[in-house]
């Protein structure tokens, strides 16, 4: 049984929607004295965090996964939820002296986001898993030191892993960043983050590595062995909340990788999974049936998807 070990954060998300545009209130000539407040009509608390979101997507796809992350004194409900979802939780650490991590996300009408993240228990790294042949690691955004330690752990065991530093790029040392990239089988980030990776690390990707750059509504770029393929974004029935789309994409990506699918099919499935995430408010609230996901895959790419959970 192949298992995906997902590290990153487990967090409670506090999601706010701002009906206006951030840009209407920002003077680009005075960003050095930025001081703004946005009035929002509602606040919704949901389950989130990079590890939690990706693990949720994997369970929707029928994958076996375990989470390597920490919860705080208020994390009992989250732990119970993971177990209900049949996520392996042996490597979820409970830290009674700290709160569970929390993300405070404001999204404007153009889907621009401002996020404040309270680290809390997410600063603590649980004991890494003993991976078996066929297992994959997913090193998602969290404390930079933790990402570096997990990458070294997977590399020492010969386990392939996906490196997805995301918004944690500001917290990882150049040395750890270079190691995480050099040993990763797959590196995935959005276009803005990928430019930061290139500038900070100055690492030349190997010909056997897979480099995926997500482009939001413009789809994604998949590069390996000197070739780059563009994969279009799947169309959502409606766009309610873009917050969890990236993590849903990662879940679809992992499904294809552990199944050994061709890269194009893998990225196309990731695109379809992401399209369901934006249709629901929150990062762990979307659902789909096998029929629904295969139908949308065909509608988008005009190919049949042989898929099973």
Automatic annotation (TrEMBL):
Per the record, the domain of life is: Bacteria
| Record SUPFAM superfamilies | Ribokinase-like
Q: Which GO terms describe its molecular function?
A: kinase activity
Specify whether Membrane is a keyword of the entry: no
Tell me the InterPro entries matching this sequence.
Carboh/pur_kinase_PfkB_CS, PfkB_dom, Ribokinase-like
Which keywords does UniProt give here? Kinase, Transferase
PROSITE patterns linked = PFKB_KINASES_1, PFKB_KINASES_2
Q: Does the keyword Cell membrane apply?
A: no
Alphabetized Pfam families for the sequence:
PfkB
Domain Carbohydrate kinase PfkB per the UniProt entry, residue ranges: 33-285
Name of this protein: Carbohydrate kinase PfkB domain-containing protein
Supply the source organism for this entry: Candidatus Doudnabacteria bacterium RIFCSPHIGHO2_01_FULL_50_11
């Amino acid at each position: 049984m192949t298992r995906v070990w997902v590290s990153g954060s487990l967090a409670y998300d506090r999601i706010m929607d701002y009906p206006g545009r951030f840009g209407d209130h920002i003077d680009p000539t005075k960003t050095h004295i930025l001081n703004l407040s946005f009035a929002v009509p509602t606040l919704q608390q949901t389950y989130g965090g990079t590890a939690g979101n990706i693990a949720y997507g994997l369970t929707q796809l029928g994958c076996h996964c375990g989470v390597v992350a920490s919860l705080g004194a208020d994390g009992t409900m989250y732990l119970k939820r993971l177990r209900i979802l049949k996520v392996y939780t042996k490597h979820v650490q409970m830290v009674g002296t700290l709160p569970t991590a929390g993300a405070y996300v404001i999204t404007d009408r153009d889907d621009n986001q401002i996020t404040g993240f309270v680290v809390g228990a997410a600063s603590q790294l649980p004991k890494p898993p003993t991976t078996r042949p066929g297992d994959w690691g997913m090193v998602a955004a969290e404390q930079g030191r933790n990402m570096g330690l997990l990458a070294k752990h997977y590399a020492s065991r010969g386990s392939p892993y996906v490196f997805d530093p995301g918004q944690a790029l500001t917290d990882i040392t150049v040395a750890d960043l270079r190691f995480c990239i050099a040993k990763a089988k797959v590196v995935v980030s959005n276009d803005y983050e990928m430019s930061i990776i290139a500038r900070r690390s100055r690492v030349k990707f190997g010909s056997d590595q897979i480099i995926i750059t997500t482009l939001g509504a413009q789809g994604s770029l998949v590069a390996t062995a000197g070739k780059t393929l563009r994969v279009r974004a799947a169309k959502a029935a409606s766009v309610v909340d873009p917050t969890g789309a990236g993590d849903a994409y990662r879940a679809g990506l992992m499904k294809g990788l552990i199944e050994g699918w061709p890269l194009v099919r893998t990225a196309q499935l990731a695109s379809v999974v992401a399209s369901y995430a934006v249709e629901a408010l929150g990062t762990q609230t979307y659902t789909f049936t096998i029929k629904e996901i295969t139908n949308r895959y065909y509608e988008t790419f005009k190919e049949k998807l042989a898929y099973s959970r």
